[in-house]
Design brief:
Length: 524
């Protein structure tokens, strides 16, 4: 066979002088042949390689008696170590004068794997196994995965996570779809299509759980805990309740409940038509009046539990406000377990849902008569009895008319020189003289201007009243009505008594005229 046109027919040179059966001629690469011919001036050399057995379309090595497509034996990918050692053991017992012939004989054999399927291997594969076994032993016979398996070449998972976090605020919804995130990443330019394909993006997001809500708490080490005394810590949360008819419209209710950690007593629970700061303040006020003030309030990171109003209320009553880790609902497991009891025992029964007040009466009756009065499986006693053991430690709100002001909202205002300040577009007059000072104004969220209480440096000054400018425009006081007199004013002369000059006036020199009486009175 000639490599190039016009070249003489090359000579075939055998590597071994002894005749080798079933050998065929195979040339080297044309570039190497031309270089060798240019340097030595000789035609290219052909190297003899042994011919492989006939292979079928399924890349299987057929036996010598294989006729057509009848005996197709598929090749086995990643065979087990047990099967490899069986093949290598057959090499020693095969027929042949040398090792190569024995390997070729084994390549014609059929082996059965662990699943009972026939398998056959090429002589090159068997030679590779034998060479590795002699160099490194049986340890290299185990199938080794690729060193770059599962690794991306063009983009890292960290880059995809940063891109997702960059476009995530623009996605509305709790569970954004990967297709939407991929489109936004491409549109915003944080990722390129040449970096990562759509299917690769989906696979990496699913593999690394980039959109899983609780990925931060997966596999977290937890320990069961309980407080030693009642009211050391309360756990609070919100539960979606049944639909109730309110003004002819079915509205889904929310249950806000407070549970004592040590005694498992439900301190207070109430259904509301909405979940906001006003409803939370109302429930918290009722819980404090019923079961006292806890030392710590353990809640999640919801918007109502991190509001300014709740922080101020806890600071006034001396309660520590603690929050669970983000997206870690299992941290407050006691109140979550209480909600499970509510669903299984209270919401599963037939309830009168005609009004919200009726639903709250049924829930209060169930809590006080059944839940708090039944023996708890962990405590071995009823929650009420466990709470009563620490009754001396419970701290209640002192009886005071201003207790409701503890649950008011507080804002700062600056008092003007005329002792007035502006609040909710209404001008109020400070209860005391506090010009050019910064005061704290407390008010109720539902009716801000109905009752405005002024505090200054933590001390209650009183309630402010709207400014009445006309009432402040009063005439000056009558001097006769002033018992103490006014500085610089002429004292009134008693009726029927003549005005006599003072003794000091008689001692004046005669040469000088006497001072008028009204001037003397003024100087005195």
């Amino acid at each position: 066979m000639a490599i190039g046109s016009g070249n003489p027919e090359p000579k075939r040179v055998l590597l071994n002088s002894a005749p080798v059966p079933n050998y065929c001629a195979r040339p080297l690469r044309p570039q190497l042949c031309q270089r060798a011919a240019t340097r030595q001036g000789t035609p290219p050399v052909f190297r003899l390689r042994p011919s492989l057995p006939a292979m079928h379309k399924n890349n299987s090595a057929a036996g010598p008696n294989a006729g057509g497509n009848q005996n197709k034996i598929p090749l086995m990918r990643n065979p087990t170590v047990y099967l490899k050692m069986r093949v290598l053991g057959a090499v020693d017992m095969a027929e042949g004068d040398n090792e190569r012939k024995r390997i070729q004989a084994v390549s014609q054999m059929t082996f059965t794997d662990e699943e009972g399927h026939p398998r056959q291997f090429t002589w090159r594969t068997i030679s590779t196994w034998l060479c590795r076994y002699r160099k490194h032993g049986v340890t290299v016979m185990e199938n080794q995965p690729r060193s770059d398996k599962g690794k991306t070449r063009k983009v890292k998972p960290e880059d995809i996570l940063e891109a997702i976090q960059a476009v995530l605020p623009k996605v509305h919804g709790r569970a954004p779809k990967p297709s939407v995130l991929y489109r936004l990443c491409i549109e915003q330019g944080v990722l390129n299509r040449s970096q990562v394909a759509r299917t690769t993006f989906y696979r990496l997001v699913r593999q690394h759980e980039m959109l899983k809500p609780d990925r931060d708490c997966a596999g977290k080490h937890r320990l069961a805990f309980a407080k030693a005394h009642a009211n050391e810590m309360w756990q609070a949360d919100t539960l979606y309740g049944p639909h109730v008819q309110i003004a002819g419209v079915a509205v889904q209710t929310r249950l806000i409940a407070f549970l004592d950690d040590a005694s498992r007593v439900c301190c207070h629970g109430q259904f509301f038509p909405a979940e906001n700061v006003d409803t939370l303040i109302e429930a918290l006020r009722a819980a404090f009046y019923k079961r006292g003030v806890p030392a710590c309030l353990y809640v999640d990171n919801g918007s109502i539990y991190t509001s300014k109003e709740i922080i101020q209320i806890c600071a006034r009553v001396g309660c520590l406000l603690a929050h669970t880790p983000v997206r870690d609902g299992a941290a407050k497991g006691k109140v979550e377990r209480f909600f499970r009891t509510v669903r299984d025992q209270f919401l599963a029964r037939e309830l009168a849902l005609s009004s919200l007040e009726g639903l709250n009466r049924q829930f209060t009756h169930w809590v006080e008569e059944q839940y708090n009065a039944q023996i708890h499986s962990v405590l071995g006693m009823t929650p009420l009895d466990r709470f009563a053991l620490d009754r001396n430690r419970v701290r209640f709100l002192p009886p005071n008319e201003a207790n409701d002001e503890l649950f008011f909202v507080e804002e700062e205002r600056h008092v003007r020189a005329d002792n007035t300040f502006s609040f909710q577009a209404v001008r109020f007059e400070a209860p005391r003289h506090l010009p050019d000072r910064t005061i704290q104004v407390r008010f109720e969220r539902k009716t801000p201007t109905r009752r405005v209480v002024v505090y200054y440096k933590g001390e209650r000054m009183g309630e402010a009243r709207p400014l009445d400018a006309i009432a402040n425009d009063r005439p000056p006081r009558n001097p006769s009505s002033d018992p103490g007199g006014t500085a610089g004013a002429i004292p009134a002369r008693p009726k029927g008594r003549p005005l006599t000059p003072p003794a000091s006036a008689a001692s004046l020199p005669i040469s000088e005229p006497a001072t008028p009486n009204h001037q003397l009175s003024t100087n005195i």
